[in-house]
Amino acid sequence: MKIEEDQIPLLLEIAARENKTTVGRMKSKDRTRFVVEARIMCYKILRDSGFTFASIGAYFDKHHSSVLHNLRQHERNYLSFNYYQETFDSIIYALGYNTEDSVADTLILDQYKERLNVLEEKMANLKGENITLRRQLQKIQKTSKILTSNLNQICIQ
Fold it and tell me: Which residues of 61-97 are buried (b: 16+ CB within 10 A; e: fewer)?
C-alpha cells in the first residue's frame, strides 16, 4: 500500500498516537526526541510512497535537506533501538503498508540477519563453555565427596 496525499493526516494521527505525542507537535519546531522520531517515521513512509524530499519538507515546514538527514537517522535508529523498531513496525502494521519494495528496509533486514547469525554463534559458544564448566563442577563435586569421606574416616579412627 502506498500512502496517497489524502492519507497523510491518517499517517500523522497514527504516528502521533504510537509515539505518544500530537500531530500539532509533529508539525511544529519541537525537537523533543519522541516528536522528532515520530516525524522521521513519517518521512520514511512518505519517501517510500514516492514523495520527494521537497514535498515532504513542505508538508512539515522543513527544508528538504533536513528530511534527507532525518531519513539517514531512521536507518541508524531502526537498527539500534528496539523501541524505535517496534514503534515504526506498529505504524506500518496499522496502515497496512508493505515495505518489501524498500531498498533501505532490505538493507536493514540483511544487517539484522547478520547480527542474528553472530548472536546465534555466540550462544553456541556459550553453550559449549557451559557444558565444559558443568563437567568441571561435577569432577570437583566427586573429588569433594571423596575427600570428605576420607576425612570422616580419619576423624573416626
Answer: ebeeeebeebbeebeebbeeeeebeebbebbbeebeb
